[in-house]
Design goal:
Keywords: Signal
CATH architecture of the largest domain: 3-Layer(aba) Sandwich
Order of helices and strands: HEHEHEHHEEHEHEHEHEEHHH
Number of helices: 12
Radius of gyration: 19 Å
Oligomer: single chain
CATH superfamily of the largest domain: Periplasmic binding protein-like II
Number of strands: 10
Strand order of the largest sheet: 7-6-8-5-9
InterPro entries: ABC_Gly_betaine_transp_sub-bd (IPR007210)
Largest sheet: 5 strands, mixed
Pfam family, one: OpuAC
Number of domains: 2
Strand content: 15-25%
CATH topology of the largest domain: D-Maltodextrin-Binding Protein, domain 2
CATH class of the largest domain: Alpha Beta
Protein name: ABC transporter substrate-binding protein
Helix content: 25-40%
Structural class: alpha/beta
Shape: globular
Distance between the termini: 29 Å
Length: 310
């Protein structure tokens, strides 16, 4: 489905009856958690959507692999776009399941949210989500936003932390996905929390070839990347520290419509979350980005290796 088709479907989809959005933390990795009063069912299969970057696509195919293994028919619609498209699509019925990240999702739903600890964020998410959606138990793997500079830029401007950027207001260019310009974990938060103002914001991509290429060429000074991106270490880039905790924790968490959240789905996704580590996720990203492997093939090979599928 292309973006135009997806957006059209948002207006045509029937609304979902309101149900309570309940969730549990990593201590509930048996997948049972708290069930909704409506009782979802995955018997008709479900559709998994993913954002437009490598890792989220890998996660989407991992979800599909473990669900297919327990008899739940899945369809993956990868690379649909940003959260601003995916959340309405999930609410409207165009997709049923989405790999998400605790802190980023919470700040999208509630920009003023103060929770930073994993359990607190999970509870805050349950309160902030629309009644027809819920987060399932979060997993071991975590991937946070990072703001990185080249070693040469760090030395030239004396950059160690995000607070140091303020000393050079109006001089530096930041590159990131377009939506980061309006996000708290982005240009808005950098100004509000650290008083940082950039010379220019260049709309590029999410920790992808555009933003990383621009950083290498010197077209931008600061890049918004993901901590699981192997190019950070490979290129010797400096991730600026975050002394005021602008960037929240980002454990991977399934976001699902109540209509599909039955015990079969819960248990399968919780089993994956209890196995997939940050190191694993970083390696899977590398295989796609560096080895140019297909994300679906990478996901299914990993699921087989870990005994999650036969």
């Amino acid at each position: 489905m292309n973006r135009r088709t997806l957006l059209g479907g948002l207006f045509a989809a029937a609304s979902v009856p309101a149900l309570s959005a309940c969730s549990s933390g990593i201590t509930s990795l048996d997948g049972e958690g708290t069930t909704t009063s409506g009782g979802g069912s995955s018997k008709g299969g479900l559709t998994i959507g993913t954002a437009n970057f490598t890792e989220n696509q890998v996660l989407g195919y991992l979800y599909a692999a473990v669900l297919d293994a327990v008899g739940v028919k899945t369809t993956v619609r990868p690379n649909l776009g940003t959260r601003e498209i995916l959340i309405p699509a999930l609410k409207g019925g165009d997709i049923d399941l989405l790999p998400e990240y605790q802190g980023a999702l919470l700040h999208y739903l509630d920009p003023k949210a103060a929770a930073t600890e994993e359990g607190e964020m999970q509870n805050s998410l349950a309160m902030a989500l629309p009644a027809s959606l819920q987060v399932l138990p979060y997993g071991l793997a975590e991937d946070s936003d990072a703001f990185a500079v080249t070693r040469e830029t760090a030395e030239k401007y004396g950059l160690i932390s995000l607070a140091d950027l303020k000393k050079h207001n109006g001089k530096l260019v930041i590159g990131a996905a377009a939506e980061v310009k309006a996000r708290q974990v982005g240009a808005v938060g950098l100004k509000d929390v650290y008083g940082v103002e950039f010379k220019e914001f260049k709309s590029l991509d999410s920790s992808g070839p555009l933003v990383k290429g621009a950083l290498k060429k010197g077209d931008i000074d600061v890049a918004n990347l993901f901590t699981t991106d192997t190019d950070i270490q490979a290129n010797g880039w400096v991730v600026l520290t975050d002394p005021k905790n602008l960037i929240p924790g980002q454990h991977v968490v399934p976001l699902i419509a109540d209509r599909k959240a039955d015990s079969t789905v819960r248990k399968a996704l919780a089993g994956l979350g209890n196995v997939l580590t940050t190191a694993d996720l970083t390696e899977l990203n590398r295989q796609v980005d560096k080895d140019k492997k297909d994300p679906e093939d990478v996901a299914r090979a990993y699921a087989q290796q870990k005994g999650l599928v036969k």
